[in-house]
Amino acid sequence: MNLKAFLLSFILMPGLHAQDFKLPSSLEALANRASETVEVNLDQRMLQLASRFLDNNDEDDAQARRIIKDLKAIYVRSFEFSKPDQYNPADLEPLRHQLLEDKQWSRIVGVRSKTDGENVDVFVKSDGDRFIGVWIISTEPKELVVVNIQGPIDPNSLSDLGGHFGIPKTERSSLTKKGSGK
Prior knowledge:
about 25% helix, alpha+beta
């Protein structure tokens, strides 16, 4: 095996990268039923490239650029349906269970609305005073969004990424509310 082939196989070897983005197969299968799907896969290299297109004169874009400079990846899956009840909320349970069982992750936000059916869970992996990983699961009767952010991010800056890279815009207050823990 020549050196070039060895290096290529080493780079492509599974398990050596930061965190792999894996959704339960039941969620990936929702694309067939959704009227609109969004899939965003930005590794560190692509994040740096994408940040070049942000406008430094726009305050929100400049803030997003500062936040993503140290991130390793952003993954987003969004499914929009033409009518309610096109997905089963139980399809999300394997992901929630996996995050709750892993002692490195903490659920910091849990919102359930019986009025409009909007539900949000935010799970974080922390290292000292910063997050090093975030999962956001947001559901509505006709929409499901899952976001995974990998890499260091200041908790106060998390909501500033909303509206960029396919991440839904959130109110800062919803991320600072006390959610139920594990």
